[in-house]
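Quick one: structure tokens for this chain, please?
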Amino acid sequence: MSWVSVSHGREHERSVFGALGDLYAYIFCMLASQLLVDMPIFGGALFMSARVALAFFESFQKKRSAYLPVKLQRWRRALLVILLLLNLCVMVIYPSQLDDPKLWILFALVIVMCLRDVSNLRLIRISVTEEMEEKRFVTLLVVFQLIQLATMAAILLCNLPGNEGWFMLACYGLCNGVTLYGQLKERVHLRTMGNVSPEQAQEARRALAQTNAYTSYEKLSALILIALEVSLVLLYTFLAVSVQKMLGYMIMAVVCTLISREAAEFVIRRRQKRGKTNDPTNLMLAALLLWLFGLIVFNSSLGMRQLRRVYIYISLGMCTAGGTVCATGMGRIEHTMAAVARFASGRETPGLRQMRGAILEFAGLLGQMLALAMLTALCFATGKDLPRDVSQLAARFQPLMVLPAMLAVLVALLSVLRFPLSSRHMEKLSRFLRLKDAGGDNPALRRQLESVVVQRRRQPFFIRAVMALLRPFYRHELKGVENIRQDDNNPIVFLSNHGEMYGPIVCMLYIPVPIRPWSISEMVVDKDEVAAYVHKYTISRQKWLPERLKWPIANLIGPLSVWAMGQLESIPVYRNKLRELMKTFTLSVEAMEAGDNLLIFPENPDGVEHGKGYERSGIGEMFRGFAMLAPIYYNKTGKKCRFLPMFAHKGARTLSFGTAVEYNPDTPPNEERDRIVDAVIEQMQQLSEREEALYQSKSK
């Protein structure tokens, strides 16, 4: 059983809380080693060595390893060689250098701790597979606990002074209680797993092998698990060197986990009440950055060779909070994986939970082996004179001790950046599957989901970060938000003034629903066209900018614009290419069929005097062609397009929304086009005049 176990549903909670049982056992063995042989780190290394061996044989036993990918099954021999070498070092070579008969007592204590887990898990699995009677299961479980407790009591009370022996026995009871609680949770989980043969699971895995979203999530969750294993072992190795402080450390681990989990859930619920989306990948990125910063603080404080406990507490809090919040985000993504598998294969996927469990057990094994390698290196680097307390650990600190944990967190962070699904696409996936269950279909939505679920794709994290940095500098008040009535089956077409670059920036930052903008093709397709367009309509009008810098800046903007427009999923508008203009409407209708709202800036940049650019204030001359979207959309879908006028006022710092203008298919096309355009212009003009009057009033 891995320190962290995640499989399905609410298993993201088990990913952190399930770690505490074995983590307490690790601390317990360190403290017992300190009291018996005055070498706490050796006891921890000994326990890790035994646990890794058990985890290896657990992961690679025939029935369970069959759920692993074939590539990972081939790692068995290499990992076995590494495991044997590490165990040889920790259990044979290093102890042979020590002349202390109490080492045998420590060996016995570690064996009892490991046999406890093996016997409990075997009993739990037998009770599920053979459908054992509840009364018999409880009786056997109680008998096992009493035997284990009696054995541990004999070891502790016969070899430690009275107070220390009883205190350690109480600590063992606490460890055993937490571990047993997690194991009983495992029993409930096993009961819901169902019987799926390894052959069925491998068939399902082959079907999902080309599904980028699923394979990306498998890598992501495994890397986070490895990082959690290594980080916790590292931090608690420095903390758990005092018997008197043990209870406090355990309580702190639980408190950090509970507080960070509840804080994450609170933020998510609060954002939901405000109508904001909760993207789990954004949550996990923030958590991993916090986690990485905690390790950096820890590394920096160790570099001073005088480590204060307060730095360890801060680092532990950051890392535990980061791991817990990551588990919360993974739990939200986990719900989507069954939908991803069903979408990719076209049917329910048997064995999905078994496959996920096998992968995560394997990841836990790798994390434990990394931690064991770190402890083994520390033992041999210091020889017989192992560090006895925090100050000695800090004095002999080597940066390489923290490097594995930092690298694991960094790689996990990079894997989040490669995960393709945002919360918007997760919602679309659920909507499509509900539609399919009802016997319907949406080809446009299906094609869009295939591009993000099956094919390789990355989320626009960088552009989101840029937008987050820009928001404080473009603070705006939103007015008329109640007029935005979101409908996934009939999206909205937002219409706004341009105001040079001001309108697009503010709209992309503050429209409270996901949108895809129309962008002039000269800003989307070719970087040279972008440079010429930006120079003509924006940069050439900036009188404060020296002439010699205008073209270099425009040329710099060219490739950045092409990249950014791709990140924003812009729809190119071929304004001066009539043959290609129909492509704009085709792409727009497909986007609306897939549930995407559109953002259009219908002003004519050549409508102002001398054709030098957009109006800086108010409403300029408008193209009327955007209204053609309504009849094309209606003929394709039978739905009435909704146009929502809006106005961004630069002086007042407001973004105002009007009321929707709905297409009427019963009116002659030309008349309906003119009615829509006139109604939009009238509302935008009213919004402009209202905000200008308020702005002038405040200015006076």
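The beta strands are 477-479, 492-495, 515-520, 571-573, 597-600, 642-649, 654-657, 661-662.
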